[in-house]
Amino acid sequence: MSITSIIRPFFMRRVRQIERFSDECHEIQLQQLTQLLDEAKNTEYGKKHGFARLQDINDFKKAVPLVRYEDLRPYIMQMVEGKSDVLWRGVTRNFAQSSGTSDGKSKYVPITKESFSRCHYRGGVDCVALYLAMNPQSRIFDGKAFILGGSYANELHLRKDVVVGDLSANLINNINPLANLVRIPDKQTALMEDWSKKLPALVEASRRQNVTNISGVPSWFLSVIKEVMRREGVESIHDVWHNLEVFFHGGISFKPYRSQYESITDKTKMHFVETYNASEGFFAVQSSPDSPAMLLLLDLGVFYEFIPLSDVDSDNPQTLTARDVEPGHTYELVITACNGLWRYRIGDTVRVEQTMPLKITIAGRTKHFINAFGEELMVHNADAAIERACRQTGAAVANYTVAPVYATTTTKGRHEWLIEFDRRPADMEAFADLLDRCLQQENSDYEAKRFQDIFIDRLSIVEARHGLFDDWLLQRSGKLGGQRKIPRLYNSRDIIDSMLEINKQSKK
Q1: Which element (helix H / strand E) includes 48?
Q2: What average pLDDT does range 88-108 have in this prediction?
Q3: d(CA 382, CA 435)
Q4: Which helix (DSSP H) or strand (DSSP E) does residue 223 occupy?
Q5: pLDDT tens-digit readout, 242-297
C-alpha cells in the first residue's frame, strides 16, 4: 500500500466539505464575515467603524469604506512597528513584501497567525485535496514536494521579532515541521537571497531526489528545470524526476509558458493545476482537468465582494456578493480577510466562469491593461494570443511586456511588444502578423480598432536581448525571485521605455 493511499481519506473529507460550496455559498460567506467582525471588533479599525454594531452585509458596506493599500498603509506600518490591535487582534510579526504601489513603495501585507493557519496553509491542503479527487491513481506523497520559495530580503530596518519577506519565504519558514519530511530543498537553500547562487544550489538539492510534485511561479521554475536538465544532459525532466506528476503553479499566467512545459515533460504523466495564491490570501484553485476555471474557496477566512468592471472607476462603486455575480462578467475583486484587510481592493480583476459552485479565472490587474485607443485589452487576452502564436510557429517566449505607441500627425497608433524569446520564430514579421490576428480573435474591441488599419496599425515587435527582464527587475527592486513580476500590459510607456533603454546596453 502506498503512502498516498493511506493519507488520501484525510483529504477526501475536505473534498466533501468543499462540495457544500454549490448550495451554501451565501451562508458560508456570511459566516466568514460575522466571524471576522467579531474577532476584530476591539481593534483600532474595528472601533473606528463600529464592528460590534454591524448586523448584516448591508450594515457592513455602509459602515466600512472600500480601500486601497495607500489607505491602509499608516495602519500597517504601525503593525510593522509592533503596535497591537490595529487592523487585527494582537501583534502581527510576519509581513509579505509585495510589488510596489503607484508611488513606487513596496507593499507590506500582514500575515497574521490566523491567515497562516486558516487561509494560506488550508489553501494548500485544498489544492492537494482537489488534485487527489481529480486523480485517484496519484502517488503524490510517495516522493518529495519541490517548493520554490523567495527570500527575506527587504528594504526595512526592523526589530528582530518582525519578519518581512516574500510570501513564499514566510510560508516555508513557518510550515509545520512534519511537512519538511516531504519537502525540498532545506530551509537554508529555499530562503537564499542571491539567485545566481540559489539556482545551482536548487539544482544540487533536487536532481537526485524522487520529486513527485512541484510548486511555484512558472517563469522561475522553468529556469530551475532547464538547469537540472542541462546538468543531467536530458531532454525531458521526467528523465530526472521519473515520478513527477503535477505542477501547482500561480503568481503569473501559465499560458505563455504552457507549451515550453509540455515540451520538456511527459504528457502521459504530467498534470498542471492553477492556483490563485496571493500575498493577501489563498483564494482559488483549479478543480477540474477539463477547465482552467478555479473554484473560489469560500471558507478560508475571506469574505469576497465584486465590483462590476463598468463601476471600477466610480467614486462610490457598488459591490456584489458571491451569490450575486453572473457568468461571463468581469469584476474587480475586493476582500475582507483574517489578515486585517477590510474591504480591500487588491487590484485584480476576475472573470466569473460559472456559479454554483463559483468558479473564476484571473482577467488581469486593474492597472495592467491597455485602453489607449478604446481597445480595452486585458492581460488574459495578451497571454492567450501569444500562447496561440507560439504554438503555431514553434516559438517560445521567456517574457514580454506591451505598451501603446501613440499616433502622431503622420502615423497611426499601435501596440509595441517587447519580447524575450527562448526560441525565436523563423520569420519575425510573419510572427507579428500572426500575433496581431490572434489578438483580434481574443478581443473584439481590438479587432474593431484594427479593421482595415483605419484606427490603429498592426502591432510591432522589439526583440529583447537575453536577460533583459531580469536586468530590469534587478535595477528596479535589487533582487530576483517569484514575487518580482513583469507588468504585461501598461497604459503608458513608462515601463517599456525604461526597458528599451536597458535593452540598448550590452549584457554585462
Answers
A1: helix 44-48
A2: 78
A3: 9
A4: helix 218-232
A5: 999 999 999 888 887 898 899 999 999 999 999 999 999 999 999 999 999 999 99
Helices (H), ranges, 233-362: 255-263
Say which DSSP state 180 is in.
G
| Contact (Cβ atoms closer than 8 angstroms) between residue 269 and residue 239 | no
Give per-residue pLDDT as tens, 3-57.
999 999 999 999 999 999 999 999 999 999 999 999 999 999 999 999 999 999 9
- Whether residue 256 has a cis bond before it, omega within 30° of 0: no
Residue 33 CA: distances (Å) to CA of 20, 54, 58, 69, 349: 18, 10, 12, 20, 21
Q: Which of 120, 482, 40, 95 is nearest to 297 (CA)?
A: 120
- Which cell numbers in the block locate residue 353? 466562469
Give whole-number Cα distances, 293 to 67, 220, 353, 441, in Å: 27, 23, 7, 20
Residue 415 corresponds to which amino acid? H
210's enclosing H/E stretch is none
CA distance 494 to 490: 8
Alpha helices in 289-427 (DSSP H): 379-393
Q: Does the N-terminal peptide bond of residue 357 adopt cis geometry, omega within 30 degrees of 0?
A: yes
User: How deeply is 43 buried, as exposed, middle or buried, from its count of CB atoms within 10 A (0-12, 13-18, 19+)?
Assistant: buried
The Cα–Cα gap between 88 and 71 comes to: 16
Displacement of CA 55 from its chain's centroid (Å) = 34
| Beta-sheet pairing, 144-147 with 183-184 | parallel
Could you give the CA distance from residue 118 to residue 251 in angstroms, rounded to a whole number? 20
Cα-based distances in Å from 192 to 101, 170, 203, 211, 488: 25, 13, 13, 21, 27
Between 197 and 98, name the one with better pLDDT. Answer: 197
Q: Is the dihedral of CA 181, 299, 363, 493 positive or negative?
A: negative
Please, how many CA atoms are within 13 Å of residue 269, restricted to the half-sphere of its CB? 19
Q: Which residues contact 118 (CB under 8 A, 6 or more apart)?
A: 300, 301, 338
Where are the extended beta strands (E) located within 315-439? 330-337, 344-354, 359-365, 369-370, 377-378, 396-405, 414-423
Quick one: angle between helices 3-18 and 121-134, nearest 10? 100
Rg (CA), the chain: 23
Tell me the CA distances in angstroms from 159 to 82, 93, 97, 163, 250, one per residue in order. 8, 10, 16, 8, 31
